[in-house]
Amino acid sequence: MAIITAPAEVAKLRQSGRIAAQALQAVVRAVRPGVSTAELNTMAESTISKLGGRPSFKGFAEYPTGLCTSINDEVVHGIPSDNRRLRVGDIIGLDIGVDYRGFFTDHAVTVAVGQVTPPRQRLLHDTAAALHLGITAVKAGRRVGDISAAIESHLRPRGYGIVTQLTGHGLGRAVHEPPIIPNVGQADRGPQLVAGMVLAIEPMVTLGGSAVETLTDGWTIITSDRQPAAHFEHTVMVTGRGCDILTTA
Fold it and tell me: Is the C or the N end of the chain the one with fewer CB within 10 Å?
């Protein structure tokens, strides 16, 4: 678990987050019917490199690309391909990781391709809102369960499936570090938050059930009932006042 407080290191971590945010914004602007997920990955990787970072997902546990592209019932870890082209009505999760001089950040959004159905639009809105509520629960002295409870309390009454097999996590000096950050839980439970901790908070939510499974590519995780899913993520740093969102431009 990284605790990062030295000013020079914090500055590098902030730059990592800015690179992630700018690269993901460029990818989102390129989303349109007909574009391939491989083209989106090329844009992500080139933007990260131009800004001085390294795509941290590429090569991590042999993952082949710098961007994850997860369409419709794919929750996370979809692999970009020349053969996957976006269509009107799709939703696509875009997940990016950056290593800037040894400091790591993650960032994800799910966006609509053209006009989507009202349930899909609500799914995107409510998952993004759940992420915001999870972030507002972060403060030194509180616990991981406070984040989990804030996310769950927004989603559960609205009837969504909350993926429990996948969680947020710590990071900062590596792609993944402790603690795990579930999207369901009880307040005032779990590890205590300390100033300087770096957390990736990432609700993964479905229009159906919470069960997921992995495709034969070994990476792409889909909903077992084939219902659409959304994924939003920010990297934050814990402070005594709350937290700083690092993955902003």
Answer: C
DSSP string, 187-210: TT-SSBP-TTBEEEE--EEESS-S
- CA distances from residue 32 to 35, 50, 91, 128 in whole angstroms, order as listed: 6, 23, 11, 21
Question: Look-up: residue for tokens 């131009």?
Answer: 50
Contact 98, 56 (CB under 8 A): yes
249 pLDDT above the threshold of 90: no
For residues 186 and 156, is the Cβ–Cβ distance under 8 A?
A: no
- What pLDDT score does 218 carry? 97
What residues contact 27, with CB distance under 8 A and at least 6 apart? 40, 43, 44, 47, 67, 94, 96
Q: How far apart are CA 130 and CA 49, in angstroms?
A: 31
- For residue 64, whether the previous peptide bond is cis, meaning omega lies within 30 degrees of 0, is no
The structure's pTM equals 0.97
Q: Please list, in sequence order, all residues whose beta carbon lies within 8 angstroms of the beta carbon of residue 248, skipping any fewer than 6 positions away.
A: 17, 18, 21, 234
Residue by residue, DSSP assigns 62-86 as G---SEEEEETTEEE-PPP-TT-B-
- Residue 101 gets the label, from left (phi > 0), alpha (psi -120 to 50) or beta, of left
Taking only the tens place, the pLDDT of each residue in 190-229 is: 999 999 999 999 999 999 999 999 999 999 999 999 999 9
**How many whole angstroms separate alpha carbon 155 and alpha carbon 15?**
32
pLDDT tens-digit profile of 83-104? Answer: 999 999 999 999 999 999 999 9
Half-sphere exposure of 128 (CA within 13 A, CB side): 11
